[in-house]
Amino acid sequence: METPDYTPAAAGVDGDLATRWASERDDDEWIEVDLGEVATLERLDLTWEAAYGSAYDVLVSDDGESWTTAESVTGGDGGTDTVALDATGRYLRVRGVTRGTGYGYSLWELEVFGTAGTGGPGDPPPGGEVETGGDLGPNVHVYDASTPVQTIQSELDAAFQQQERDQFGEGRHQFLFKPGTYPVHAHVGFYTSVSGAGRDPDDVDVTGGVWADAQWFDGNATQNFWRSVENLKVTPSTGDDRWAVSQAAPMRRVHVDGALSLHSSAYGWASGGYIADSRVEGQVNGYTQQQWYTRDSTLAGGWDGVLWNMVYSGVEHAPASTFPDPAVTTLATTGVIREKPYLYWDEEADDWAVFVPELRDGTRGTTWATGSTPGTSVPLDRFYVARPDAEEWKINAALDQGLNVLFTPGVYRLQDTVRVTRPDTVVLGLGYATIVPEAGQTAMTVADVDGVTVAALLFDAGETESPAMLEVGPDGASADHADDPIALHDVFVRVGGAVAGKVIDGVVVNADDTIVDHVWSWRGDHGTGIGWDVNTADRGFVVNGDDVSAYGLFVEHYQKYNTLWTGERGRTVFYQNELPYDPPSEAAWTHDGVRGYAAYKVADGVREHEAWGLGSYCVFTTDDTITVDNGFEVPDTPGVRMHSLLTVSLGGKGTYAHVINGVGPEASGTETVPAKVTEYSDHRWS
Predict the structure, then answer these.
(1) Which position among 32, 339, 471, 578 bears the catalytic label?
(2) Model's pTM, two decimal places?
(3) Closest Cα partner for 137 from 174, 190, 166?
(4) Does residue 578 carry a catalytic annotation?
């Protein structure tokens, strides 16, 4: 866009001939409209500003992905064009071929004429309109103050007994506590979420404790994945709550009225985690945590314990920045962020609702410090409540119908892509709801529209290779979403472990202004279906959109660049990575004369990018003589600035020759000492 503030795409379809859309000065530019349903298209009227198109194509699509040319126009001379059409489609795109001036394309108005709802995928679904609201299913356990304590404790214990060790099984549980006080102990195993169902965290007080330990793994918490605690107060009976976890185990909107330990009771290793929008009254102890990210919270009792990479943004009473020693990186505020939506019991409506927090900027501390979190409540009757045993077609039918979708706990084996096409749609999972694309399709796509939220879902790659698990915006997306960004919260990808999954790219973000709030994209290194030629996956996280911000990005074990960033003005706060364990040899993993692939690659043409607190670790179990040239690779230009970088050779199994762009010390040797670079920009480093 020339100036997106006053010539955005929306200005070309607003019915106002005083506003216009304008493109950049390039022939290959386009504008697209979503008609909401498949329609018969009879005519297209284009009212050009002085910068017109002398040649352009009119394309149509039913799904926003596969396009056909409905008409090609040549010899245009500006003014008003009327183009006769004989086509059907939900989406219409005008794609420039040749500009009529030296400027871009500029339209006062684009108008489409035809008959809506007249065929193809827009036909009514097999069962008519999809029902809304309703039963949350058998794997959602709901309690209120009248529920006998022994009943609650018995069900918590039964779920933990099932899930404590079941790392790749199909059990899924969501525990919801309505407002009240609960003297119970919630031990949290795999694929288990424990949440308060009040409007605010202090509405629910668990006075026994919410616990994650690692006794099942001899005190080692490095595989304590896929569990969560959210939106409640914990008053631990011991005075010290324990949340010994690694990846994909968020703590959100939690008030700990006591201390908090992030290591196991045996002080075994743990490999990183995530806290947001929380308050801890006592001291947080992170003694054996290798890395951790804390965002927009209050640590009233401070923090003790630093190993490799501790990062804080917008955290009251956080430790000061001391990188490289101790390795602490602290930002006073976070940036543009929206907190994750959550399910709660709306007492006034006497029904469930989903609360969507508002967009904020320059954040610090919790959203609920001085009252309820600002935002919007969406009643459950605006959601299709999906269950794994329901008919698959209902998911996309509900989205086409304009509904949000709530995935209840379970494993969803799907033959079709979940297509999110309408602005401000909320797609929310409970209890680690898991989507498996069994036909080799992309598991979920999000259109280039404002305000979509995808939260709390696990995407598990199927045995037939998929292009991606989640694609945010189609290839070439260009809409401006700055005022209402797309947001991803607690989105997790797994390739291998349960089956020999295969994917090309885990998550692809094409849409501008997307907020990425805690993602773990993991190519499996243990479990079922593991091997260099078995669970194949090139890249874990790819960003092509501009102005994308990532807060808490965990990407591990992919076979090429774990993270590849081609968009401009990207920002990352905290990055955790392990390179693949299993390259067969250094020669097999060498490309373009470079040994290995960097963990985090900013593409050569990018002019602006900034990141803080990035760590990459290697443990080459197939061939421990492998050397990778760089942990990180970025363009040498003043607008690319990297802060607090480190590489670690775990037990000497492999070597990093340099931290970034051929500079920084070597990481090698059995003593597992990190190599660090404090600042890097334009080939200047310290």
Answers:
(1) 578
(2) 0.84
(3) 174
(4) yes
